[in-house]
Amino acid sequence: MSDSVTLSPAAITRTNMVEGAAASASLLCLVHCLALPVLFLLSPGLLRFIPDSPLVHLAAFAFVVPFAAGAFWLGYRQHGQRGPGLVGLAGLALLALSLWGGWSAVVEHGLSIPGSALLVIGHYRNWRLRRCPLAESRA
Fold first, then answer.
1. Left if phi > 0, otherwise alpha if psi is -120 to 50, otherwise beta: which for 91?
2. Does residue 1 lie within any of the structural domains?
3. Rounded to an integer, what distance in angstroms lies between the CA atom of residue 85 and that of residue 77?
4. Which carries the bigger pLDDT value, residue 23 or residue 118?
5. Which class for 110: exposed (0-12), middle (13-18), buried (19 or more C-beta within 10 A)?
């Protein structure tokens, strides 16, 4: 059963902007988690230019959460499907757990990489449902 609503063109544009910002931030987080360690291995001199503080990750998380929540809520209002939001929520939970502190780098990456990936997947599914609701229902 779908509780979807019909949105005005202006509301769809706002939803597209929020979804785009949220998906971009999630993808950037995933690239950061995957590429930065490799970059540091290849060029250890870069470490002095990157702030090494847990506050950087907390600030990024604080930026991602409201955009993700807004995008999933707006998508749900449009298509009425809970799946993308639940996938995104699982991703946010893993990211929050990775920030808890006291983890080894391996455990932190083992939580943050799948968390970022789940956020990206949730945003992609949300975007697909908003664009073509029948495509996702058949998949």
1. alpha
2. no
3. 11
4. 118
5. middle
Vertex 86: Cα angle to 73 and 129 (nearest 5): 60
* Residue recorded with tokens 């945003």: 123
Share of the chain above pLDDT 90, in %: 29
Q: What is the C-alpha separation between 94 and 81, in angstroms, rounded? A: 22
Going by pLDDT thresholds of 50, 70 and 90, the confidence category of residue 84 is very high
Cα dist from 136 to 19, 67, 76, whole Å: 17, 23, 14
- Where helices occur in the chain by DSSP H, the ranges are 9-42, 54-79, 83-99, 105-131, 133-138
Domain membership of residue 130 as a residue range:
9-138
Q: What is the count of structural domains for the chain?
A: 1
3 falls within a domain:
no
| Residue 4 belongs to some domain of the structure | no
Residues 33-47, mean pLDDT to the nearest whole number:
72
* CA triple 135-5-79, angle to 5 deg: 25
Residue at 2 is within a domain = no
